[in-house]
Amino acid sequence: MDQRLPAAARPALTGSARAVFRRLVEEGPSTRPQIGQSLGLSRPTMSAAIAELEKPGLVEMIGAVQGPLGRSAAQYRVGQGAGHVMAVDAGSTHVSLRVSTLDRRLLDARVYRLPVSQISINDQVSRAVAQQVAAALAATQPDWGPLRALGIAVPTRVVGPGGDVVASRQEVVFSAFTPPPGVDVVLENNVNCAAVAERHYGAARGEANFAYVQVGVKIGMGLMLGDQLIRGRNGAAGEIGHLSFPFAPGLQPRPGEAEQYLGTEAFLARVRADWPADAGTAPADTAELLALAGAGHALALQHVARHADDIGATVASCVSVVDPGLVVLGGGLGASPLLLPGVRETVNRLSYAAEIRSTLLGADATVLGIERLAIETALPRVIGQEA
Amino acid sequence: MDQRLPAAARPALTGSARAVFRRLVEEGPSTRPQIGQSLGLSRPTMSAAIAELEKPGLVEMIGAVQGPLGRSAAQYRVGQGAGHVMAVDAGSTHVSLRVSTLDRRLLDARVYRLPVSQISINDQVSRAVAQQVAAALAATQPDWGPLRALGIAVPTRVVGPGGDVVASRQEVVFSAFTPPPGVDVVLENNVNCAAVAERHYGAARGEANFAYVQVGVKIGMGLMLGDQLIRGRNGAAGEIGHLSFPFAPGLQPRPGEAEQYLGTEAFLARVRADWPADAGTAPADTAELLALAGAGHALALQHVARHADDIGATVASCVSVVDPGLVVLGGGLGASPLLLPGVRETVNRLSYAAEIRSTLLGADATVLGIERLAIETALPRVIGQEA
DNA sequence: TTTATTAGTTAAGCAGCCTAACACATAAGG
DNA sequence: CCTTATGTGTTAGGCTGCTTAACTAATAAA
After folding, report:
1. How do residues A16-36 score in pLDDT, each as one tens digit?
2. Is the pTM of this model over 0.90?
3. What CATH superfamily is the domain A204-360?
4. How far apart are the C-alpha atoms of A157 and B120, rounded to whole Å?
5. CATH architecture assignment, domain A83-198+366-382
């Protein structure tokens, strides 16, 4: 440890105490021997670390676990002093909120359904966020400890410090909402959040490299490489709606045309245009189309297959650039098992070997991901390594 | 340090000694005060570290540097005991080789021009590698110390352990060449090597995120994100010749078609097809075409501009996937200043803000990059942290 | 020759881990 | 019920790798 720096305001824990706390955050309640063994710490060091963490209430004993033989082992978990985080998914149809401890014990959850689906983030969404956060803050219990971080998932690019904040529209979420003072605010793109959630709890659990591709009203990707979320210089990594399209000899690509072409609106328009007058009314939305296809409707199946090909070509381009080895499909269309085989076939025909899976988390992915990111932001603060 | 592990065969240096050695490898000769200051080490610790490193000859004093006042400071550099590395670029027209110390003092350099340009890596190239390496080994001086690593840059995908080695053709370089026993061999794709070199010594010096795009006979990309070279599950990251192409409504993409279309051969074929009979003979290669364009030849300029657009669209797709913020162009065509403005314009029209620069290293990039990678492989070995 | 300044060494101490040995708690077996 | 085996937690002591403080060494300028 660097002993030249002045002691931080926070306790300045030893390395082993930090490791123990981190392990309790990540793995949940554990006994002392379990922690010691998994971190390679001796029993005296474990004693010291636990004592150090118990004083400020960062951990607390929650019981004893009896093995087949011998003395029972004390079990610990993250304590009240560690505080809690709040995670908000500021979506276009719902605003959902989770309050939880750093080891993800749910303290409060709220969902607000927006009266009409918003095209993109706006005042209305911001007001709903303000309302839900206020309600959650009002419901705060003393035994939750301090609020350590507030994470907000937004459907815009999120640029880091020094980036062009205005162009990204990321500030719109704050147009009618002021975060509580003194709390770390974590802003992240909703697709990136979903990728984080799939990495930790979903179809990509434990995978260091994969791409999460969301196929719905719009198309987007969250990229995880070397266990790092790839955001890009302008927060635009994964904005695959901007892939060059059309891209062929003699054709001029147009900016954002891929998004336009692959989005549900244009897709449905193509379906409608192709729908014979004598085949009943064309599907009004993708859910209807998928239902028809699922029931064996030949024309619906054909359109779904065509779209799977288009998505497959898109994913193949991504695979060619970063070769993630694994692609998780999510979003309204992407989650459908009807799309999966076509995408799989096309990707592996056009590009290098990549496993293609469907999301395991569905619409919950985003809020779970921003919760994870809020926790990861809070953790170094709590154990006093802000650098 | 983990004291439970048995002492390694290697000296088992202290953390500070390792840091000092690393710093001498990376920054070249320095005085004790310089090193101590930049690493934040006290003078007693510096004394201990230097003493520790001098014993096995890992560092050596090379003189004293006099400041404006006070006692002169001892200057050190990496010593003989640290040994040296050998770097080979197994290219299609040349095999070039560099032997250097870990702090990049050149000990030997060889270039072998292949009798005919090889389409891809083959026996002939492998024999040339064997020959050059043998010559360099024969010329080894005792004061070079031990050979720590042998790096080879190859024009194929390079897959990690567990990957499909056969499909990547990476083993072809060993068809007629057996590396000296007991030496670490580092295999890396040549475009990735060039990216590494641009990162350390070229147009992307000090940049943690950028893409190096090589435009020549073939097209390829080396990707550096968060200061990590992105290789991909199958070593296929950056294989942008496999971007979906053609990619447009109603068209079927074909695997590898982008490479085919963007490569010099097809490009020149298009130029020739369009060349009027009364305009003299069409350019035989891209160098001729570039020369004509450079001299103001309207038709040549038009073709170069068209190709710049195509390359721009390709780069824009990459930017949409990873948003690197910086793209360095290299390769026979990519290095040309005639291409740069067109690429720049197209990329920024289609995608997010990205700076576009030309290579500063040209054809040397590959061998400098593989040298760097060999050094990075050797370093942890030498200071005994193989994990 | 003295003085100021910078470089390097010696001495002493502390943080953070370890091992060894002992005290404590619990299940199983006479 | 008491002993034995086994695993848990604490106490004592030690080692490593750094620190600061104070000293010695070397050099330019006065």
Report:
1. 999 999 999 999 999 999 999
2. yes
3. ATPase, nucleotide binding domain (3.30.420.40)
4. 41
5. 2-Layer Sandwich (3.30)
